[in-house]
């Protein structure tokens, strides 16, 4: 699963954990969140050891697992409220954070709907920001799965999480929701350490300040997208200029 993996993650950056299915991404995430104990070695998060200090680590950590973990009978708003209070926010703080997250995820009109009954809605992808490199998607129905996934990602940021671990947050969602999640991550990157696992190369390139490529549980290479393209990308370019 994971074989001698050694890697640093930095505050204010998104590190894209890129690898094929079975490369060890989810296992690494599970170890960092305390779901699986390491058989050897350890990891330090903000100076705390995952083997002995997980209670302290979890106070400032947010996570979005590979599959949604939502309560069917709770509304979108109640989910954010529940996790905010669980993180120790006051009623005033959680109310303000709820409004902010609902706006940033584009879900204010769904705030009182139970997650099991989330349905598609018509809308247009926002413009501007790094994610604007993608073609705009207009007049598109947003499937329930995309909305549920956006909520799961938003929950990871509740309570001022300083370390955020996202395990394939856009896998299986529609293009509109995928772009919306990208914009949310880019907006919330500042002051946080975000680790994003993915098997989409375009996602790793667009979001990652650094990209770590893993295979068979081992780190193959790590660096900025530009560095990796320079070292591992196209060997040369041929440019043809049309004469007037």
From TrEMBL:
Any one GO MF annotation of this record: ATP hydrolysis activity
Keywords per UniProt: ATP-binding, Nucleotide-binding, Repeat, Transport
Residue ranges that the Swiss-Prot or TrEMBL entry lists as coiled coil: none
One term under GO cellular component: membrane
Domain ABC transporter: 1-241
SUPFAM superfamilies: P-loop containing nucleoside triphosphate hydrolases
Entries under SMART domains matching the protein: AAA (SM00382)
KW Repeat (keyword) present: yes
Pfam families assigned: AAA_21, ABC_tran
PANTHER family: ATP-BINDING CASSETTE SUB-FAMILY A MEMBER 2 (PTHR19229:SF36), ATP-BINDING CASSETTE TRANSPORTER SUBFAMILY A ABCA (PTHR19229)
Protein known as: ABCA1 protein
Species for this entry: Crypturellus undulatus
Gene: Abca1_2
